Amino acid sequence: MIGKLSLTWPKRLEDNPSYGDLRRLPQLRQEAHRASLPIRLRPVLHHILVLFPRRNFVLPNWQLRGFLHRHKHRNADGRETAQVYVADPSSALPRPVRELKGFAKVALKAGESKTVEVELDRDALAYYDEKKGAFVVSVGPSSRELPLVKEVELAETFSWTGLCIAAPLGFFFVNEWALRWISTAFRTDPIQECIKISSTNMLFQFDVEETLKKLSMPQKVQLLAGLGFWHTQAIVSAGIKSMRMSDVFNGVPSSCFPSATGIGSSFDIELAREIGDALADECRAKSVHILLGPTVNTQRSPLGGRGFESFSEDPHLNGTIAAAYIQGVQAKGVATTLKHFVANEQEYQRFSSSSEVNERALREIYLKPFQIVVKKANPWVMMAALNRVNGIHASENKYLIEDILRKEWGWKGMIMSDWTGLYSTSESIKAGLDLEMPGPTVVRGGAAERAIQGGKIFPEDIDARVRKILELYKHALASGIPFNGPEKGVPDTPRLRNLLRRAASAAVVLLKNDKKLLPLNTKVKSVAVIGPNAKRAFTSGGGSAELLASYTVSPLQGIDAVAKDAGFAVEYATGATTFRYLPVLDGAIQFKHGDTKGDGALLEFWNHEPVENWLTSLVNGGTPVWSMTTRFSFCPLIDGVDNTKVNFTCWYRYSAAFTPDRTGNYKFELIVGGRGTLFINGKLVIDLTGDVPDGSPMFGAGTVSAQGIVEGLKGGEPVTLEARLSNQTFIESGTAYETRGGVRLGATPVISDEDALEEAIALAKKSDVAVVVVGLNNEWEGEGFDRPNMKLPGRTDQLVSEILKANSKTAIVNQSGTQVEMPWVDQAHTLLQAFYGGNELGNGLADILFGKTNPSGKLALTFPKRLEDNPSYLSFGDRSEVDNKVYYTEGIYAGYRYYDAKHVEPLFPFGYGLSYTHFSFSNLSLTKISADGHFVVRLMVTNSGPLDGSEIVQVYIVDPVSTLPRPQKELKGYLKVTVKAGENMQVGIDLDRDALGYYDERRRAWIAEKGTFEVWVGSSSRQIFLKGSVELKDTITWDGL
Questions:
Q1: C or N terminus of the chain, fewer CB within 10 Å?
Q2: What positions does the domain PA14 occupy (predicted)?
Q3: Ordered domains of the chain (ranges, CATH)
């Protein structure tokens, strides 16, 4: 015998200890098991093993030896497993009859015997309160065959306080005794070393109500606002430490996954959960308790600056992908922050604009993804939007926060303001807004204490807000993430890179392949790679969602890697100038600091001006108080600077050697948060020390750009760059963001648009195949501004059109977070939408281009032919009829719902995407709708093409006889399935009352009206292959989740 069952095999399902509960896994996160403790604990531990593979767990170095047991085996040739079970018959608390605590596998020849040693430690004997007494040790080949029994004595009680948690304790929501037991079962974390804490009581018995009683009113008020940019306040005397939160601007480079629109376009729930799991690892490595994402606002317009941060225009897809992402993060004890609550769809006048939206549209479109996430994933934190909703700021909107979120939906978490998005004291506290961010406080603190004195708010109002912060703090304690711990990067492993690469491929959508050019044949002799987005790796849009990527792979680098293996030649030409600001210098700069050299630049800081007129001279001025290195030439200094050494008002120097890749004249650019200068080879080239207007970068707090030309640079020969900078004027200006300013350096060869285009055309003509990579980037899509139109920048359209004429074997790749116009689309026979693909953008794209991965993405957004076709065209941004108001005139007809209702043909419809193989749907069947609205859609998916591939089955519901008007169809279910070539797969998709209902403003409730509903199944919103119908016998009405 070799194998042994690793789980008990019941005779029937009803014999399983969790029958009736584990079949409802979504509720596991919110409900305790109904079985008694010793029985229910085992299934919980089983799920830990499933979620966190055994290889992640390593015994801690510190260990108390219990005893050694020796047992002789006599057997035929083969292998046997000695299993050691421990029983505690005299326990004061109920315990399992026996528990596996050790095992050893041994290979024996016939008639041979061996001594087997199974070493046990204190965990083999322990539950939370360990005691003196006798323990029974049994050994045998299975849990029911235990021929050897021995009693061992534990003479003295002992306890310990060092522990490290691998299981995400908050995930289980079982009672505290069970939590303590689990903590002794798995004590190591796959990321960080074991944490020593002062008391297990502090970790598991932190009493929110008792702590609340002990806090003074000034202490409570102190907790209501943040400590600086990324932390909550600490009350040391009460044992409350500072929780750390993170967006992405921090000093430690991280893994960058595809933008949300790319993840949404994967339609892949499991991938979203995997990404969440990996992000939790990043957070734990950086000692982050609260991740400030994801975003589930709805893309009303292609022009929204932050549109790339949300998953989809469809509320169901938006909410379900976000829920899976959150499940992955919070399963490892890291809190997520669902944002921005709610109706935050534009950047224009984002602090003051009021989103005027009717109740039905608010419920069905804009609140719906939040509602789905609360129901499926229970995010521990939410972030209120900056804007007003129907006249009232979201951060002080009692109807949204208290009436809907907390009372109607029953959500129990903590809600914070967006950064500088809190505008009132008593109103926001009464409305239920718990935490003001960032610190120091502007509208709480003394203002809150005065509001109490004036009777505008009461002590119980403060208690309600502080209670939510303390409940979140209890989650942070249970996570085992250290407070004020070090920020470390996650190890760069093949597994992580594989996930990043798979995600990048999954985010690519094949839009056209009319001549079957793709996948490209690696036997070609030459490939021309053309376009401004090919050489640079645009991993993300801009703003707070953009991070310091641990590494990047550009499309050119990804194609180059394939070329090296296959042996074909690759040449590059930019073709067009499309940048909003000159390209950053990442990858072309090096620093030297003493004997240390490396890629990137050196940043040095002083707390006072080193010498008079330091900015405009090259005079040195003493030793800096602190220094750091960076790989980047765009450094918004929001985080990553040592606060204990560097003042908020400071002077700093950015120095590096820049190596141009070609000979000629170069144009350089400088943007600063404050004032600064740029010296090149010791000469002053750019001076931004005078009266300089503000510009768009750095959330609108940077200067306008200034440029200068340096002539006669030689390719491969470095030149010295030194930028001298100060944020003094930045701080004195009273900006909402109290940071150390920032710097952005860029450069490009001076080349005319005509010359660049001719160079690209010539390259395309001489090459076997051309790949043109164009699109937007973090300068055109980002926080703080909306796009003026849907057009591609510069002379992109001309470039694409000319290359299509020059080479008939041309594949066009558009990279953008949201929709763009494509006036050349009829010329192109091969077209892909790549979105922003994260670290592995280039490799993920190359895998699609050359057929290593079969494309499976589907558009999570409708691509209109022109901006005027978009439903929000006349009521978005500065086209709104009234200043500081934007009317959501499209109502419930957002996204594809509008194109269906208006019979407008889009460029590419929602849910659309091609594959290198062919799928068909058949055999549709529908179960009857149950009394509570549940039914199942079943069908057969067949892969009749030549390649293995994945297809997304999309289920749309049609209500042809509704009392109130409804969209023609609405996505209510989907499933990604992988089917091998020539095979088929039976698919089932569960739907419930939410798939049938709409919101009735008059009844202030959801309603699914009795009657016949049509069920449409297809591969996009405009490609429906199967239709059926189901009947709801009785009308269902409900509120809440």
A1: N
A2: 596-761
A3: 13-179 (2.60.40.10), 215-479 (3.20.20.300), 505-537+551-574+769-879 (3.40.50.1700), 589-749 (2.60.120.260), 919-1038 (2.60.40.10)
